[in-house]
Design a protein that fits this description.
phosphorelay sensor kinase activity, Helix Hairpins, 3 domains, HisK_dim/P_sf, Heat Shock Protein 90, EC 2.7.13.3, 15% strand, alpha+beta, four-stranded antiparallel sheet, transmembrane helix, 9 helices
Length: 431
């Protein structure tokens, strides 16, 4: 496992940077909007003051007076308004601010006296604008201020994120170095925050339990060869000698066949368990060369032949001499022993056909169809049909062993019999 990247620290910094930039941009926009609003309100107040004075002059003299400010003009006819103002005002009668050509900018205020006369005050304020000439400097000031704030926030955030994520990073580094064959004696402690300390204690307890499980599995691997296989070999040998006794009755011979069949299936189960245990304990090694199928299959058929004694069963093998499977030879032998042994054991009469085409090995045997109630749990431990002499473990263990080595195992059946297929994962089905 590669060393963990500082993903959490980086995400915290990115979130803090984005938040700071967002806040700076938001308040910068508020500041610029406020300046424009204050400037517009100043011009509106100026026009309102001029409008009040004009209305007083109109009431006193009966005529409009000359505006007091040089940048303000009074128009009694809408046709006299500047083109930029008149064109927009026709579409938007309530508008009071108008952009003009060549940098000009207008503010408008309508006058209505008591006699119904109407006039317009137009202020061309391009010379009185304060924000526009300073806009570049203001934006530059806001930009530098935002950069300074972001830098300060990043420095503070880096320190805070480092202090916050450092315990978790140390714990992640310790977990990344763990291997099933190289578990630490204890998960490092000394974490400052309570949450990480609780996680470290939980991982320490879990590592201790895993170490105990591995030790028990290794002890089982060492002891199973003698403690399990030797008694089974004695049972098988005694059964073979007893089967040669001429005075053995039919009923006794039937019971003896059951004993021999159960012992053979138990031997296969033990072999697969040992294969799984050895694979779990083994160090990673260079990939083994593909195993040739036919020599292993011939050996397995001979070994499992006692299961066909006194049965009217024919065996047909159609496997090319150069056919191979991408697994070690020992693993292929264990798998074929289980699958071929199952086919021999569950065929009372008929045939067992073994063929390989396009990288897929098929084992077909006549016999009982798979019961509908058994289909969903076929690969589960202790799943077996009614009356079977097996333990219901072989197929489940075989599938685990296949998964360990990148193989796919499928079992299907109909009224004619049962077909078992074995192939490398991703192998397309043959035509």
């Amino acid at each position: 496992m590669s060393a963990p990247r500082r993903g959490l620290h980086r995400r915290v910094m990115l979130m803090l940077t984005g938040f700071t930039l967002g806040v700076a941009a938001l308040f910068g926009a508020y500041a610029i909007t406020f300046m424009y609003a204050v400037e517009d309100r100043f011009f509106e107040a100026q026009l309102e003051d001029e409008a009040a004075w004009q209305l007083r002059q109109r009431a006193a003299t009966g005529a409009w007076a000359v505006p007091r400010s040089a940048h303000v003009r009074l128009h009694e006819d809408a046709a006299e308004l500047p083109d930029e103002v008149r064109t927009v005002l026709e579409r938007e009668p309530r508008r009071v601010e108008f952009p003009g050509r060549d940098g000009r900018h207008y503010h408008l205020h309508a006058l209505d006296d008591r006699s119904g006369a109407r006039a317009w005050l137009v202020a061309e304020v391009s010379g009185q604008l304060v924000v526009r000439p300073m806009r570049g400097r203001i934006l530059q000031l806001l930009g530098w201020s935002a950069a300074a704030v972001v830098l300060l926030a990043l420095l503070a955030g880096h320190r805070l994120a480092r202090r916050t994520t450092a315990p978790l990073s140390r714990l992640a580094a310790a977990v990344a170095d763990m291997r099933p064959d190289r578990l630490p004696e204890a998960v490092p402690g000394g974490f400052g925050d309570e949450e990480t300390a609780v996680l470290a204690r939980g991982l320490d307890d879990l590592v201790g339990r895993i170490r105990e499980f591995i030790a028990r599995e290794q002890e089982f691997t060492r002891d199973a060869s003698h403690e399990l296989r030797t008694p089974l070999a004695v049972i098988r040998s005694a059964g073979e000698r007893l089967a040669r006794e001429p005075g053995l009755g039919d009923a006794a011979r039937t019971q003896l066949d059951h004993i021999r069949q159960s012992a053979a299936q138990l031997e296969q189960t033990v072999d697969m368990l040992l294969a799984l245990a050895r694979e779990g304990d083994a160090q990673p090694a260079a990939p083994a060369p593909p195993a040739r199928v036919l020599p292993v299959l011939e050996r397995v058929v001979v070994e499992q032949a006692p299961l066909l004694e006194d049965k009217a069963v024919s065996v047909d093998v159609q496997v090319a001499p150069d056919a191979s499977m991408p697994v070690p030879q020992a693993v292929l032998h264990v798998l074929l022993s289980n699958l071929v042994g199952n086919a021999f054991a569950h065929t009372a009469a008929g045939e067992v056909g073994i063929a390989m085409d396009a990288g897929t090995l098929r084992i077909f045997n006549t016999g009982h169809a798979i019961e509908p109630a058994l289909r969903d749990s076929l690969y589960q431990p202790f799943a077996r049909r009614e009356g079977s002499a097996g333990f219901g473990l072989g197929l489940a263990i075989a599938r685990r062993l296949c998964a360990r080595h990148g193989l796919e195992l499928h079992v299907d059946g109909d009224a004619r019999g049962i077909t078992t297929t074995l192939a490398a994962a991703g192998t397309p089905p043959p035509p």
